[in-house]
Specification:
Elements (H helix, E strand, L loop, with lengths): L10 E7 L6 H4 L9 H16 L7 E12 L8 E11 L4 E8 L4 E13 H12 L11
Antiparallel strand pairs: 1-3, 2-5, 3-4, 4-5
C-alpha cells in the first residue's frame, strides 16, 4: 500500500435540497414527508469521501466501513440541508470522522463515520471473484 497521509481536521461539506424523493413518504405513503435517515447518512458519507479524496493516490477511492448516527430532528421538503464531515483520526487503514447535518434551523443529525481507502481496481477484482461464488438459488420443493 502506498503511503497515504490524511490530516486530522481535513473536512468537506455538501448541500442538497430536500425533495419528496428524499423523504420517508416517497417509499411509504403512510409516513411523514420528511428527510429520510438513510438519505441523511448517505449525504454524510459523501461529505466524508470528499474530505479525504484529495489525499488519496490516483486510482484510489474510499468505502464506508461504519456509521454511528443519531437523527435528531425532522426536516420538511424544500429545506436545504448541509452535511459536514471532519477527519478525527487516520490509523493507516481507516479514517474516522465526526459528521453532522444542519437544515438551516437546527442540527438534525450527528455522529461518527468510518471509511476505508481502497485501490479501486484491486477492490473490483475481489468483488468480481466473490460474484462468481454466488450460491445458486434452489427451486422450492412442492
Amino acid at each position: 500500500m502506498p503511503e497515504i497521509r490524511i490530516p486530522k481536521g481535513a473536512w468537506a461539506a455538501i448541500k442538497e435540497t430536500v425533495t419528496r424523493d428524499k423523504t420517508v413518504a416517497h417509499f411509504h405513503d403512510d409516513m411523514p414527508e420528511v428527510y429520510g435517515t438513510p438519505m441523511m447518512i448517505y449525504l454524510m458519507e459523501l461529505a466524508a469521501a470528499q474530505a479525504i479524496a484529495p489525499y488519496l493516490p490516483p486510482g484510489w477511492s474510499s468505502v464506508g466501513a461504519a456509521v454511528d448516527i443519531r437523527h435528531l430532528a425532522a426536516t420538511p421538503t424544500g429545506f436545504t440541508v448541509t452535511a459536514r464531515a471532519e477527519v478525527l483520526e487516520w490509523d493507516g487503514r481507516t479514517v474516522a470522522f465526526a459528521v453532522e447535518v444542519r437544515d438551516g434551523v437546527e442540527l438534525i443529525g450527528e455522529g461518527r463515520h468510518v471509511r476505508a481507502p481502497i485501490e479501486v481496481e484491486r477492490f473490483n477484482r475481489r468483488v468480481a471473484a466473490k460474484a462468481l461464488q454466488q450460491p445458486r438459488r434452489e427451486e422450492p420443493q412442492p
